[in-house]
Each structure stands twice: as C-alpha cells, then as structure tokens.
C-alpha cells in the first residue's frame, strides 16, 4: 500500500523491525507530545501512543505494530523513531 504524501513539516522515518517494515511520519507536534507526556513512572504509554499515531499504512500496519508493542518493544521503537526525527546535533556553550 502506498503511503500518503508527507505533510509539510513532517519527516519520514523508515524502520525495519524484525521482518516487518514500518514508515512513520513525525512532526514537531507529535515529537513534543511524546516529550511532554514522558514521566519517570510512565514511559511506555506515551511511547505506544507516539508510534501508533505516527505509523503509516492504516489499520493493517497498526495491528502489525501492536504485536511488537505487546512484546515489550514500544519504548525501543519510539526511541528510534524520535531519533530519526531529531538526529544528533552537537551543541556547545561558548564562554
């Protein structure tokens, strides 16, 4: 199934998870929601919401993704998707 065009301001993050391929469309709104909802006592639910909300491919891909979530991989997948949205950037303080 072909993915919809990416909306302006969104980045496409492609992941291979086991034998499955997933495409995520992530924008600053979704990324910020993940960061804001993360709490010391609750990282899994925001991670699940983030990847389910951004995965492309309709219900079929969401159900496929749920198999990995049910296996305990939500946080791992969410970390990779968010890193794909916001790659490393060197920041230094100048005196």
Characterise this structure:
Helix content is 48%, strand content 15%. With 95 residues, the chain is α+β, with helices and mostly antiparallel strands. The protein has a two-stranded antiparallel sheet. The radius of gyration is 14 Å and the shape is globular. The chain starts with 10 loop residues before the first strand and ends in a 10-residue tail after the last helix. The relative contact order is 0.19.
Summarize this structure as a short list of keywords or feature phrases:
95 residues; alpha+beta; two-stranded antiparallel sheet; 4 helices; globular
Major sheet characteristics: 2 strands, antiparallel
**Average of pLDDT:** 92
How big is the Rg?
14 Å
Q: Any low-confidence stretches, pLDDT <50, length ≥5?
A: none
Q: Approximately how much helix is present in the residues? A: 40-55%
How many DSSP-defined strands? 2
From the N-terminal CA to the C-terminal CA, the straight-line distance is: 53 Å
The topology string of helices and strands comes to: EEHHHH
What fraction of the residues are assigned to beta strands by DSSP?
5-15%
Structural class: alpha+beta
Q: Please give the order of strands in the largest beta sheet.
A: 1-2
Number of helical segments? 4
């Amino acid at each position: 199934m072909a993915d919809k065009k990416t909306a302006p301001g969104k980045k496409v993050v492609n992941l291979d998870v086991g034998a499955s391929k997933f495409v995520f469309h992530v924008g600053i709104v979704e990324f910020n929601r993940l960061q804001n909802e993360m709490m010391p006592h609750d990282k899994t639910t925001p991670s699940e919401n983030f990847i389910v909300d951004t995965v492309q491919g309709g219900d079929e891909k969401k159900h496929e993704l749920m198999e990995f979530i049910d296996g305990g991989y939500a946080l791992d997948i969410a970390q990779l998707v968010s890193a794909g949205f916001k790659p490393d950037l060197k920041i230094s303080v100048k005196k």
